[in-house]
């Protein structure tokens, strides 16, 4: 019967979890990957001491004090059933009796106890489906250790008896999502994925569905940094409201990428109507007006000129992309330049793709000219193309939905029978989607 | 806590948004699922302000036999802006409601909330039909022949043996059987466990139902658990238990059927039983896994304690290859 039910796509990211069914164009649920548990219960759980303290400062003190003591005694009451996930968790954590945890750190699952309960609640409560009736597509970050895959499979098959499981690499799904763009003519799984979320930006080269692990690069600039950059600009100017939320709203509504900063400054000075106003509604229902000025184009600019915001990371994004592709095998480089795909919320700025394409083209053309000069032969040229599309924000989830609604999807999954026959290590390899 | 709710949160959210005053119409095309092979499809086929919600249920044929259409019509026909497409539902689905948002008007917020919750309870309403039918039959029977007050052990009287058993094949091999009689309504679930260990958990879990009744909650319906053996009430329907099914019998007493409100409450809870049951078995397993992980990590700690601290200098001196080269020590 599970052949007729839609597959479930679960994309658990560091910040947000995207849940939904195959065939839909947007995830049914998007909420924080957070779980709120009873504050006292967390002390008896075996939490690794080496973990960075992600609890709120007050609870981490109390829990670390307690966990040093009687570790052997687990309370045998209902505490393990008392938890909330997602938005409800954030709500519950405001009270005194719950503490908030983020089971995923840097894209990888760190706390399996919490993750198991998070899944349990998201499947039954939010998606309302019986896992025995559905196939599941989960996502994983690039370079996820195979042990993590095995753990995931163990939970999905042994706790939930799910009908079938496929674990896909996020970057590959992001590539698949780009097929909706009109610029994409051949549906290949080769390309460079720029995945920029809230915490970190990855540049990932993918060749025929395989991630080239040795060439992946991370950039410590992402959505959060842009927001805090806007916030500092607002503070420097002495605006009346400089909260993080205001900065975030300004980022989403007003920011865009400009082709040239100097010209843009001039444009702003000669056309005062470029300055925008943002209305903040305060708790007391009074309205505050915040001026939005140069940060409209300066904020996204930190991808291209990081020195305006940070002092420790100074390589612009186009250079990083170029380095990544240069570090990949030579026979796929042309295709990697030709298919650069954006994914994640922080790539949503207007003209982000166009600017990246232009800067990258300049870099590449310079190199091509240099080699032509040195060798004296004519190069056939390298095409650089950055692909933006409408689904960028939830690209990974959307790619999963796209692939999981195909008829062949279920033949790529492993079923419970396969798992019992071969054991957890079966999930170390998944056959790739054959590309039409 | 871990109570399953019979409202579908996604349907609820969709309509809560759609009926909000500041709603900007968007085109929708969404598939939403629910337990027991129920699928909803929310779409806007013609214009953005007209939402079509369709439901497909695995056992629609059985439900239709027991008058689900009449029930749904009575539930939703009081809203003039909802068009019930009972005869020609959307292709591939069994029942459709076409909601015109432009025509929608409510007396107050309460009425709006009520409609939203009625829409999100569409599945429950569908499954309610056979239960209501059985409850009505019980009302007739109990009038004809009032329950014998001397029958304190709840023995079956002979008059009821010929009563029709309402059957819902809600999953492929699993069914719900409902038998009305003059002093009770018996509901029997048959369920299959894909995993043998699940069956063991289920035994413990079901034992808890009967124990709870003994201990404190005397108002709860009586629960009888049959493994492999087919209950007498339905032995004429199911000849052989070939699929290793488990049967769970609920006996609903008059107090569970007294008023309209109590009846709906009973239906809401009992029709979710199978999902609830399987859900909790899974929770038990999650909990066991947690404890196992904890055990392993505490044992590893003990083992690590037993490890001898070797002096690093000493180690460096010891580890040499045949040619006399040393290993590079890593932390």
Automatic annotation (TrEMBL), chain A:
GO cellular component: actin cortical patch; Arp2/3 protein complex
Region (Disordered): 39-71
Record's keyword terms, sorted: Actin-binding, ATP-binding, Cytoplasm, Cytoskeleton, Nucleotide-binding
InterPro entries referenced in this protein's UniProt entry, alphabetically: Actin, Actin/actin-like_CS, ATPase_NBD
GO biological process, alphabetically ordered: actin cortical patch organization; Arp2/3 complex-mediated actin nucleation
Localization per Swiss-Prot or TrEMBL: Cytoplasm, Cytoskeleton
Annotated Gene3D superfamilies: 3.30.420.40, Actin, Chain A, domain 4
Record GO terms (molecular function): actin binding; ATP binding
UniProt similarity note: Belongs to the actin family. ARP3 subfamily.
Protein known as: Actin-related protein 3
From TrEMBL, chain B:
Gene Ontology biological-process entries: actin filament polymerization; Arp2/3 complex-mediated actin nucleation; endocytosis
Gene3D superfamilies with a match to the protein in the record: 3.30.1460.20
Pfam family, one: P34-Arc
Record's keyword terms, sorted: Actin-binding, Cytoplasm, Cytoskeleton
InterPro entries, sorted: ARPC2 (IPR007188), ARPC2/4 (IPR034666)
Transmembrane portions of the chain: none
Subcellular location: Cytoplasm, Cytoskeleton
Entry's Gene Ontology cellular component terms: Arp2/3 protein complex
Highest taxon of the lineage: Eukaryota
Assembly and binders: Component of the Arp2/3 complex.
Family of this protein: Belongs to the ARPC2 family.
Job of this protein: Functions as actin-binding component of the Arp2/3 complex which is involved in regulation of actin polymerization and together with an activating nucleation-promoting factor (NPF) mediates the formation of branched actin networks.
The protein, known as: Arp2/3 complex 34 kDa subunit
Organism: [Candida] arabinofermentans NRRL YB-2248
Lineage: Eukaryota, Fungi, Dikarya, Ascomycota, Saccharomycotina
């Amino acid at each position: 019967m599970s052949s007729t039910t839609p597959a479930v796509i679960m994309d658990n990211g560091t910040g947000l979890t995207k849940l939904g069914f195959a065939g839909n164009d947007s995830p049914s649920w998007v909420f924080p990957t957070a779980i709120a548990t009873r504050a006292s219960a967390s002390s008896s759980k075996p939490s690794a001491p080496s973990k960075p303290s992600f609890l709120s400062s007050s609870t981490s003190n109390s829990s670390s004090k307690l966990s040093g003591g009687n570790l052997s005694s687990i309370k045998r009451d209902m505490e393990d059933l008392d938890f909330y996930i997602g938005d409800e968790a954030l709500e519950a954590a405001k009270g005194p009796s719950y503490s908030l945890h983020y089971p995923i750190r840097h894209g990888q699952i760190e706390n399996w106890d919490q993750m198991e309960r998070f899944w349990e609640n998201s499947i039954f409560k939010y998606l309302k489906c019986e896992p025995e009736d559905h196939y599941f597509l989960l996502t994983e970050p690039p370079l996820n250790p195979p042990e993590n895959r095995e753990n995931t499979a163990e939970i999905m098959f042994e706790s939930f008896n799910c009908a079938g499981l496929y674990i896909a690499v996020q970057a590959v799904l992001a590539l698949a999502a780009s097929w909706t763009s009109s610029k994409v003519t051949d549906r290949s799984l080769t390309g460079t994925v720029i995945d920029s979320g809230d915490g970190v930006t990855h540049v990932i080269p993918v060749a025929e569905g395989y991630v080239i692990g040795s060439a992946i690069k991370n950039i410590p600039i992402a959505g959060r940094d842009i927001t805090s950059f806007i916030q500092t600009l607002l503070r420097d100017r002495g605006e009346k409201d400089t909260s993080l939320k205001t900065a975030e709203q300004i980022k989403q509504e007003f920011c865009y990428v400009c082709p040239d900063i100097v010209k843009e400054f001039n444009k702003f000075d000669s056309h005062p109507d470029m300055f925008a106003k943002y209305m903040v509604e305060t708790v007391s229902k009074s309205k505050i007006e915040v001026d939005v000025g140069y940060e409209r184009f300066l904020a996204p600019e930190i991808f291209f000129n990081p020195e305006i915001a940070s002092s420790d990371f100074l390589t612009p994004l186009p250079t990083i992309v170029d380095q990544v592709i240069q570090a990949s095998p030579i026979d796929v480089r042309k295709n990697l330049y030709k298919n650069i795909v954006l994914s994640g919320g922080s790539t949503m700025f207007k003209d982000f793709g166009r600017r990246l394409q232009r800067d990258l083209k300049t870099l590449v053309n310079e190199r091509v000219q240099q080699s032509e000069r040195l060798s004296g032969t004519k190069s056939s040229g390298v095409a650089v193309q950055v692909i933006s599309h409408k689904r960028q924000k939830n690209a990974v989830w959307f790619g999963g939905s796209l692939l999981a609604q195909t008829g062949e999807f279920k033949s790529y999954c492993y079923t419970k029978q396969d798992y019992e026959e071969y054991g957890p290590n079966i999930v170390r390899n998944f056959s790739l989607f054959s590309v039409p | 806590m871990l109570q399953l709710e019979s409202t579908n949160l996604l349907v609820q959210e969709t309509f809560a948004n759609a009926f909000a005053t500041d709603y900007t119409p968007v085109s929708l095309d969404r598939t939403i699922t629910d337990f027991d092979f129920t699928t909803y499809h929310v779409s806007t086929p013609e214009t953005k302000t007209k939402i079509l919600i369709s439901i497909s249920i695995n056992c629609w044929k059985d439900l239709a036999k027991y008058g689900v259409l009449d029930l749904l019509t009575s539930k939703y026909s009081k809203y003039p802006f909802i068009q019930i497409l009972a005869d020609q539902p959307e292709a591939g689905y069994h029942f459709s409601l076409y909601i015109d948002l432009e025509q929608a008007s409510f007396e107050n917020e309460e009425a709006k909330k009520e409609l939203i919750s009625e829409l999100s309870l569409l599945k429950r309403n569908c499954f309610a039909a056979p239960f209501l039918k059985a409850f009505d039959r019980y009302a007739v029977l109990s009038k004809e022949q009032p329950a014998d007050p001397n029958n304190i052990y709840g023995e079956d009287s002979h008059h009821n043996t010929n009563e029709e058993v309402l059957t819902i094949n809600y999953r492929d091999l699993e069914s719900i059987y409902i038998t009305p009689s003059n002093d009770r309504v018996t509901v029997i679930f048959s369920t299959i466990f894909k995993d043998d260990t699940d069956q063991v958990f289920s035994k413990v879990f079901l034992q808890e139902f009967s124990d709870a009744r003994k201990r404190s909650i005397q108002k709860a319906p009586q629960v009888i658990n049959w493994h492999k053996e087919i209950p007498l009430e339905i032995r004429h329907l199911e000849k052989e238990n070939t699929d290793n099914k488990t049967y769970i019998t609920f006996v609903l007493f008059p107090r569970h059927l007294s008023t309209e409100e109590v009846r709906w409450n009973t239906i809401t809870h009992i029709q979710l039983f199978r999902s609830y049951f399987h859900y909790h078995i899974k929770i038990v397993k999650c909990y066991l896994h947690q404890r196992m992980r904890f055990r392993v990590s505490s044992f590893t700690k003990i083992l690590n304690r037993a490890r001898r601290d070797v002096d690093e200098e000493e180690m460096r001196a010891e580890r040499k290859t045949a040619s006399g080269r040393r290993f590079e020590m890593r932390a």
